[in-house]
Structure formats: C-alpha cells, structure tokens
Design goal:
Largest sheet: 4 strands, mixed
Shape: globular
Radius of gyration: 15 Å
CATH architecture: Alpha-Beta Complex
Number of strands: 9
Order of helices and strands: HEEEEHEEEEEH
CATH superfamily: Nucleoside Triphosphate Pyrophosphohydrolase
CATH class: Alpha Beta
CATH topology: Nucleoside Triphosphate Pyrophosphohydrolase
Number of helices: 3
Helix content: 25-40%
Amino acid sequence: MLSHRLRRKFEPWISRGFHFYWRFARATTLGAFGMVIDREGRIFLVKHSYVSGWHFPGGGVEPGESLRTGLARELSEEGNIHLTGEPLLHGMYHNPRVSKRDHVALFIVRDFAQPSAPVPDHEIVDHGFFALDALPADTGRAARARIAEVFEGAKVSEVW
C-alpha cells in the first residue's frame, strides 16, 4: 500500500521528468498504441507501474522504426501479443497532456497470437482482456474515449 501511495505522489514528477528528457532528445514524440480485441470482443488493457489506471498497450516509436514496427514491439513487450495480420490504423491524435509535440497513433488489432500470458514486470504490473461492460473502474479517459469511437460510433477526436 505504501508503494502505491508513493507512486501516486511522485507520478506527476516522474512523468514530467520523462517528457522533459524527450522534449530535448526528440523534436516530436510519436506513440503507437493498440486496441487489441479478442474473438469474444474483449479489450486488452495493461496497468503500468508509473501511471495509474488501465490503458492500451503501446508506447514511443523509436528512431528508425515505422509505426507498425513500433506497435509490434510494444505489443510484444507489454502483452506477449504478436501480430498475425495487419493492424488497422484507427486514428492519429494530438496528445497535449504530454507535450505540445506529442502524437499518438491508435491501431485496431484483431489478428494476433498470445502464446502465453505476459509476466508482470517493473513496467507492466497487471494486464487482462475485459468485456466492454466490465472495464476496470479506473480505465483511463483516453482508452474509454477510443472505445466509444470504435464500438459506439462516437465522433473521432483529434485529441488523445
């Protein structure tokens, strides 16, 4: 419980520190995230050690990587999920909560294999597939908005 309270206390500073570094290391940041949907229509979400709530797996695209390659790497690292078909680009979003230069690509992933459940580590502390009507209470705002775009026909936003 203490580590959870400490994490929540220092979370804004840790996040700002990473983004301060990225601001100087990269002119623009680009992320690739996946809305992974299984055959039962459930969504795969992960819980990070450094930010509260449940989110789509994904992260920063490295220099020299394509969006698809970055997505494939992040899905493998965070969920032991391997693409078996082409992901569908759902949208590109500006993420001003991170920085004025941050952009996020969201892919819909329906063709994948997950040979075994991922093992929680220092970055991903929990994960799971969730039915649309049984999302964790602390599912992130951006994930909920994207789910509404895909499953409820909500207007696609330009902002993550």
